[in-house]
Amino acid sequence: MSGFGRGKVILLGEHAVVYGVPALAAGLDRGVIAEARPAAVAALACAPWGTDDPLGADTELGRAFTAVVEAHPRAPLPSLRVEADVALPAGAGLGCSAALGVAVVRALDEAVGHEATDAEVAERSLAWERVFHGNPSGLDNTMAAHGGVACYVRGGRLERLDVRRRLRLVVGDSGEPSSTRAMVESVARQRARDEARFDKTLAAIAALVQNGRLAIEAGDTHALGQLMDLNQHLLSAWMLSTTALEDMIGAARAAGAKGAKLTGAGGGGCMIALVESAEVGARVAGAIAALGFAAFETEVG
Ligand code: MEV
Question: Is the CATH code 3.90.1010.10 the one for domain 167-300?
Answer without folding.
Answer: no
